[in-house]
Amino acid sequence: MTISVNGVPxxxxxxxxGLDEALKRIPRERxxxxxxxxKLANLNMIRNWVGQSTGENFYELCDKYGLLVWxxxxxxxxxxxxxxTDIPTYIANVRDKVLRFRNHPSIVLWCARNxxxxxxxxxxxxxxxxxxxxxxxxxxxxxTDGAGVRSHGPYSWRVPREFYxxxxxxxxxxxxxxxxxxxxxxxxxxxxxxxxxxxxDWAEHDFARGNSGSENYPGEIAARYGxxxxxxxxxxxxxxxxxEAFRAMYEGRNAxxxxxxxxxxxxxxxxxxxxxxxxxxxxxxxPMASFYGVMHASExxxxxxxxxxxxxxxxxxxxxxxxxxxxxxxxxxxxGAQFYAHETPLTAEPEAVTTLGPIAFPTTIHTVHFLKLNLxxxxxxxxxxxxxxxxxxxYPDDFESLQSMPTVTLVGRASSKDDGGQRIISVxxxxxxxxxALMAHVQLRRKSTGERVLPAYASDNYIxxxxxxxxxxxxxxxxxxxxxxxPLVTVDGWNSTVAQTTSGGVSIAPNVDAMPDKWPATGLxxxxxxxx
Length: 532
Fold this sequence. Notes:
Blueprint: E1 3-5, E2 8-10, E3 12-17, H1 28-40, E4 45-48, H2 56-65, E5 68-72, H3 87-101, E6 107-113, H4 120-133, E7 138-142, E8 149-150, E9 171-175, H5 183-189, H6 200-204, H7 217-225, H8 231-254, E10 263-266, H9 289-297, E11 301-305, E12 311-316, E13 322-332, E14 338-348, E15 352-358, E16 368-376, E17 382-391, E18 408-419, E19 422-430, E20 437-446, E21 457-458, E22 463-465, E23 470-478, E24 487-492, E25 496-498, E26 501-503, E27 506-510
Parallel strand pairs: 3-4, 3-10, 4-5, 5-6, 6-7, 8-9, 9-10, 18-25, 24-27
Antiparallel strand pairs: 1-2, 11-12, 12-15, 13-14, 13-16, 16-17, 18-19, 19-23, 20-22, 20-24, 21-23, 26-27
Helix pairs in contact: 1-2, 3-4, 7-8, 8-9
């Protein structure tokens, strides 16, 4: 199945929603922030799983932000409960829903049931209702069967290359990963006594045995990046894992754009309660690294490294060719030294993958190294950038040596302006050293209290800077959220901090709380038998 809009095929990148909010008391402002975040992540569809988002605001805001809706009726997986027995009442509810919402252009299809087919007596009635009221939209009986549609996960963290495997799940309606929030979000969702041991409170926030694979996650991440010193160390390692997994979730499908892949929907992009899994932003509306991995992978023009076959690829989601492009490859060692650089001119064909062949990694490369990709337009402006940490061919996925990277103190400058009730802060981070600054993370706060300003919308985050590189990002938030206070931008990262300064009315400071060596070493032990 391929979704087209005005005759143009659209590669679907989206997220599954259950409840928009666990208590179903969501104000329009919060709902708009959630949908806006999906738009800024370059997603184009929300799946209204089992029809649980029921308000007019949901559809109006999807219309406003141009997000397509895969809408469903009211039947969960057959294993989750009995079939409806009062069929006239059930069909009356369906008629009411279709009549109420069918004029919203965001709705692209109606799906009868999650992970199963409706009983024949309901299916036949649904077909009659839709033939009568909705003859132009597709009727999809099952969310996991028919026309190449499949769900069935996996829902747990995986190494990036595993996301490139496609069997018969061409229109993938469900797959996910553990997605750990920022340190501040974790502090906000649990009392201090539970911060440094993985216990029942973590399980209450979905870090438990089940489809998420949370019981295996601490061991997987420690084996990949090294043992945990404490919670801040767990969080910084989890952000690398977040970025890797969620970027690969979408890049793996990019690599087979329309041949045969046509869609990828994350299970689940929106958290209806504070959680450790299946989300691209936290319940408090702060995005984690997962969000920015998705944002980059879902660009309309995107450069990527195929982690399954080692080839350089340019993804063009536009209906016209992109001419006069240049793909630039740079390979760096763990010490920041550049081992290799190469440029390739190209034309990216419309709605297709343009493959530029395998990257010629030098044989003398470090066992752990970095790959930086830039796609430039005919004027030389960068239109897509991507950064990978990789093992040398033949070596295992062991990135523990990343812990030996020296701390890079970035230099920041900023400016602030108010426009239409929005405060827009421009932040430029410069790397003055000969080393890589890996996954630098900025947060917007109120200066006098240090409290985060949320929601805040960043043009990018968790950025990696090559030696002597600088990048500018914008942070936008409702000016009223500052409560009359001045803005503060804090910086943390894998090996990044920042020189404290004030620039353009904006204070810039290191996020000291995020530094693992500022906290006692606890090892973050598992305290709950259910997680072992």
